[in-house]
Amino acid sequence: MLVAGCIPRVDRPEPPSRPSPSRPPVVRPAEPSAATLQCHADMRREEFRYRPLPDQYFSGGCSALGAVQLIDIGTPTTNLGAMTCPLALRFGRWVREAVQPAAGQWLRSRVVKVESMGTYACRPVNNVAGNRISEHGLANAVDIGGFVLEDGRRITVLAGWNGEDEDVRRFLRAVHQAGCRRFGITLGPDANALHRDHFHFDMGRGPYCR
Hints:
globular; 23% strand
């Protein structure tokens, strides 16, 4: 299974990640840092199954350093590629500690699949040439578009955020706010039109929640 106060300046929010062609990566074997080893230990303690990935450097300044491939976090999650270990750890906790309880509270059903829109994608912010590298280009971001429930319902950010079902709206806002407490930057439909259909979570500079 694959799973206010002074707010620092943040570049314009990002659209969903999409793969872009790039040169083959340069793989550089390296001993994991102490922080990465600690993160691996934390992942094991949380009983998240994962596979460590070699450090990779791509053209355009992109990279995937200290990254892992999530295998099992207790809830199947689609379309997960390379993620930095701290992002993967926070993501697994978000699904287990926020998504599942909120689904039980507001939707009275368990989430059986989280629908990701991707993690690593080598591109600049907003796909605008000249912008800094997106956190997606550092394997440091994940986009979430929807959830499938055990009772057969499919909840999407696009249809549910401002939809007619009050419980769905409450569920989506609860998991969005839980993301704000766990990730450096959390963006959703209220950030701008680019995020009308997904939540963006990353471990970049923050905190910033919108």
